[in-house]
Amino acid sequence: MSALPLQLLDSFLLGYNLGDALLFLFGLGILAVIPMKSWKVLTLHLLLFGLIFFLTPSSMFSVNPNGAHLLGSALEYKLLGLGLLLVSPVLYATAD
Predict the structure, then answer these.
(1) What are phi and psi of 87, to 5 degrees?
(2) What phi and psi, each to the nearest 5 degrees, are found at residue 71?
(3) Which of 19, 32, 48, 73 has the fewest Cβ atoms within 10 Å of its own Cβ atom?
Protein backbone atom coordinates (compact mmCIF):
# COMPACT_ATOMS: atom_id res chain seq x y z
CA MET A 1 0.00 0.00 0.00
CA SER A 2 1.30 3.42 -0.91
CA ALA A 3 2.05 5.93 1.83
CA LEU A 4 1.30 8.86 -0.46
CA PRO A 5 -2.34 9.39 0.66
CA LEU A 6 -1.24 9.49 4.31
CA GLN A 7 1.47 12.01 3.53
CA LEU A 8 -1.06 14.23 1.75
CA LEU A 9 -3.43 14.00 4.68
CA ASP A 10 -0.63 14.72 7.14
CA SER A 11 0.60 17.75 5.19
CA PHE A 12 -2.97 19.08 5.10
CA LEU A 13 -3.62 18.59 8.83
CA LEU A 14 -0.32 20.13 9.97
CA GLY A 15 -1.75 23.60 9.34
CA TYR A 16 -4.50 23.14 11.94
CA ASN A 17 -4.58 22.78 15.71
CA LEU A 18 -6.85 21.18 18.30
CA GLY A 19 -9.01 24.29 18.51
CA ASP A 20 -9.82 24.08 14.82
CA ALA A 21 -10.76 20.41 15.18
CA LEU A 22 -12.96 21.23 18.17
CA LEU A 23 -14.68 24.02 16.25
CA PHE A 24 -15.34 21.59 13.41
CA LEU A 25 -16.83 19.04 15.85
CA PHE A 26 -18.83 21.82 17.51
CA GLY A 27 -20.38 22.74 14.17
CA LEU A 28 -21.09 19.11 13.29
CA GLY A 29 -22.67 18.61 16.69
CA ILE A 30 -24.97 21.58 16.23
CA LEU A 31 -26.03 20.22 12.85
CA ALA A 32 -26.72 16.85 14.49
CA VAL A 33 -28.75 18.37 17.34
CA ILE A 34 -30.93 20.70 15.25
CA PRO A 35 -33.15 17.91 13.80
CA MET A 36 -34.00 16.85 17.35
CA LYS A 37 -35.80 20.21 17.79
CA SER A 38 -34.90 20.28 21.47
CA TRP A 39 -33.71 23.61 22.82
CA LYS A 40 -32.46 21.97 26.03
CA VAL A 41 -30.28 19.46 24.17
CA LEU A 42 -28.81 22.27 22.08
CA THR A 43 -27.97 24.32 25.17
CA LEU A 44 -26.40 21.27 26.83
CA HIS A 45 -24.27 20.86 23.70
CA LEU A 46 -23.23 24.53 23.99
CA LEU A 47 -22.42 24.07 27.66
CA LEU A 48 -20.33 20.96 27.03
CA PHE A 49 -18.26 22.57 24.30
CA GLY A 50 -17.89 25.73 26.36
CA LEU A 51 -16.43 23.60 29.13
CA ILE A 52 -14.13 21.78 26.69
CA PHE A 53 -12.85 25.02 25.16
CA PHE A 54 -12.36 26.64 28.57
CA LEU A 55 -10.58 23.71 30.25
CA THR A 56 -8.34 22.63 27.37
CA PRO A 57 -4.75 23.74 28.06
CA SER A 58 -3.62 26.75 26.04
CA SER A 59 -0.63 24.86 24.70
CA MET A 60 -3.02 22.62 22.76
CA PHE A 61 -4.29 25.70 20.89
CA SER A 62 -0.84 26.68 19.65
CA VAL A 63 -1.23 28.87 16.61
CA ASN A 64 1.29 28.54 13.80
CA PRO A 65 1.72 31.82 11.86
CA ASN A 66 1.87 29.83 8.61
CA GLY A 67 -1.25 27.80 9.38
CA ALA A 68 -4.83 28.53 8.44
CA HIS A 69 -6.50 28.87 11.84
CA LEU A 70 -10.10 29.83 12.43
CA LEU A 71 -9.27 31.88 15.54
CA GLY A 72 -6.10 33.93 15.90
CA SER A 73 -4.85 33.01 19.37
CA ALA A 74 -5.31 30.62 22.27
CA LEU A 75 -7.00 33.41 24.23
CA GLU A 76 -9.76 33.60 21.63
CA TYR A 77 -10.54 29.89 22.07
CA LYS A 78 -10.66 30.40 25.85
CA LEU A 79 -12.96 33.42 25.48
CA LEU A 80 -15.24 31.43 23.18
CA GLY A 81 -15.47 28.74 25.87
CA LEU A 82 -16.17 31.33 28.57
CA GLY A 83 -18.86 32.93 26.45
CA LEU A 84 -20.54 29.59 25.84
CA LEU A 85 -20.33 28.80 29.56
CA LEU A 86 -22.04 32.08 30.43
CA VAL A 87 -24.76 31.98 27.78
CA SER A 88 -25.82 28.33 27.82
CA PRO A 89 -27.24 28.16 31.39
CA VAL A 90 -29.40 31.19 30.63
CA LEU A 91 -30.64 29.60 27.42
CA TYR A 92 -31.28 26.32 29.26
CA ALA A 93 -33.33 28.08 31.92
CA THR A 94 -35.48 29.82 29.30
CA ALA A 95 -36.09 26.63 27.27
CA ASP A 96 -39.54 25.07 27.25
Answers:
(1) -85, -40
(2) -120, 150
(3) 32
Residue 95 contacts residue 39 (beta carbons within 8 Å): yes
Calculate ∠ Cα 48-53-56, nearest 5°. Answer: 115
Q: Would you list the domain boundaries of the chain?
A: 4-94
pTM: 0.81
Calculate the average pLDDT of the chain: 86
* Number of C-beta neighbours around residue 51 at 10 A: 14
- Closest by CA to 51, choosing from 21, 89, 20, 24, is 89
Residues 53-95: tens digit of each pLDDT: 999 988 887 766 666 677 878 888 899 999 999 999 999 999 8
